[in-house]
Design goal:
Blueprint (H helix, E strand, L loop, with lengths): L65 H5 L3 E4 L12 H13 L4 E4 L11 H15 L4 E5 L5 H13 L4 E5 L8 H11 L5 E5 L1 H4 L5 H7 L5 E6 L3 H9 L4 E3 L5 H7 L4 E4 L6 H9 L4 H14 L6 H9 L6 E3 L7 H14 L19 E3 L3
Parallel strand pairs: 1-2, 1-8, 2-3, 3-4, 4-5, 5-6, 6-7, 7-8, 9-10
Helix pairs in contact: 4-5, 5-7, 11-13
Keywords: Amino-acid biosynthesis, Diaminopimelate biosynthesis, Lyase, Lysine biosynthesis, Schiff base
Pfam families: DHDPS (PF00701)
Catalytic activity: L-aspartate 4-semialdehyde + pyruvate = (2S,4S)-4-hydroxy-2,3,4,5-tetrahydrodipicolinate + H2O + H(+)
Length: about 375
């Protein structure tokens, strides 16, 4: 007998979605007559099996509460450096993380867009999360980017990430193969049971906004830590007025989001380079002069899609090898010269590393298409 699906409860309004809005499937009553000539109609909404049990552990050794994650002020989307054969340069990576810790960062995102998780295999991805936890988990919060546009992959990667000890997960809405708002909620509800979770809204990359009604529908989850929001100050204010924790996803807006609109902090790219200054920007009161001082650097970093700028900058500072996994390539020579001038203007002492900033020539970069 074929398996038929029976809708148990109807979807409610977006604002009231929750556990009671899930769908489960059951075998039909054997007494039901089957009319082979009847016209088949598709289910009116997605079906969410309720028999899946999260693969999770309640061992407390490395566990962090959702409330602890909500307190993080400066979270750096950490860069992943490479060896000449394309494998991870763990020595350089460890130095980068140590410099974040020394300069007051509260957390790191491992394998995010800046860390080029999109260019990693899942084996590499989970290994790097585990390595970061093993080496630095007692000194800084480790948030693994285990999101995916495939719910199956997101569930599996998140299970593995928490199994190796990450403190929290970062999850994006399904991109490219976009889904409905109901699908977004269903996607997030599949990963939220596993541990503290930050949702990431960046429509410029995903092609689809996560509207507030989706966030409000999952906000009651004990594992929902907050949202990394890239839409702007009005959205930040809407969330903070409703008690939802927000991290700005835009370095150029984070000062005003923090001090004027109630954001807790920022998940930052710029802090890869100047973590001390970014910490000061977010923790010592309004500082428009420092914010203005950092604007040329932030604009430079995002003159091309991230992580092209930060990869180029870190290589010029001498803290990573000048190696790129394609399709990323370094900024052109004129921009590399401009970066040297920006460093001098802000002060070399405010940047990570100890080597003099250099203008690297084109032939000093290694671009890898196979690794």
């Amino acid at each position: 007998m074929s398996v038929a699906y029976q809708q148990i409860s109807a979807f409610k309004s977006y604002s009231s979605w929750g556990k009671d809005s899930a769908f489960q499937f059951v075998r039909p009553n054997s007494t039901i007559a089957h009319n082979r000539s009847a016209r088949w109609t598709a289910p009116s909404a997605a079906i969410i099996p309720n028999f899946h049990l999260p693969m999770r552990s309640y061992e407390v050794k490395n566990r962090t509460s959702t409330d602890d994650i909500k307190l993080l002020r400066l979270i750096t989307a950490i860069k992943t450096p490479y060896l000449p054969d394309g494998r991870f340069d763990l020595e350089a990576y460890d130095d980068l993380v140590n410099m974040q810790i020394e300069n007051g960062a509260d957390g790191v995102i491992v394998g995010g867009t800046t860390g080029e998780g999109q260019l990693m295999s899942w084996d590499e991805h989970i290994m790097l999360i585990g390595h970061t936890i093993n080496c630095f988990g007692t000194s800084i919060k480790v948030i693994g980017n285990t999101g995916s546009n495939s719910t199956r992959e997101a569930v599996h990667a998140t299970e593995q990430g928490f199994a190796v000890g990450m403190h929290a997960a970062l999850h994006i809405n399904p991109y490219y193969g976009k889904t409905s708002l109901e699908g977004m909620v269903a996607h997030f509800q599949c990963v939220l049971p596993m541990g503290p979770t930050i949702i990431y809204n960046v429509p410029s990359r995903t092609g689809q906004d996560i509207p507030p009604r989706v966030i409000h529908s999952i906000a009651d989850s004990t594992n929902f830590a907050g949202i990394k929001e890239c839409v702007g100050h009005d959205r930040v204010k809407e969330y903070t007025n409703n008690g939802i924790t927000v991290w700005s996803g835009n370095d150029d807006e984070c000062h005003d989001s923090r001090w004027d609109h109630g954001a807790t902090g920022v998940i930052s790219v710029t802090s890869n380079l100047v973590p001390g200054l970014m910490r000061e920007l977010l923790s010592k009161g309004k500082n428009p002069s420092l914010n203005k001082k950092l604007v040329p650097l932030i604009n430079w970093l995002f003159c091309e899609p991230n992580p092209i700028g930060v990869n180029t900058a870190l290589a010029q500072l001498g803290v990573i090898r000048p190696i790129f996994r394609l399709p990323y390539v370094p900024l052109p020579l004129a921009k590399r010269v401009e970066f040297v001038n920006i460093v001098k203007e802000i002060g070399r002492e405010n940047f990570i590393g100890e080597k003099d900033v250099q203008v690297l020539e084109d032939d000093e970069f290694l671009l890898l298409g196979r690794y």
